[in-house]
Amino acid sequence: MTEGMVGLLLIYLNGEYLDYSEARLPVDERGLQFADGIYEVALVWDGQFIDLDRHLQRLERSAAALELKLPFTRSEIRAVADELLHREDPRRAAFYLQVTRGVAPRDHRFPSEIVPPTVIAYLKDAPLDQEGLAHGVSAITEPDLRWLRCDIKSVSLLPNVLARQHAAARGVREAILVRAGVGVTEGSATNIWMVRHGSIVTAPESNWILSGIVRGVVLELANAENLPVAERFASQEELMQADEVFLTSTTSFVTPIVQIDGRLIGDGTPGPVTTRLQELYMQRLSRLAHVAD
Ligand code: PDD
Question: Tell me, which fold does domain 130-290 have in CATH?
Answer without folding.
Answer: D-amino Acid Aminotransferase; Chain A, domain 2 (3.20.10)
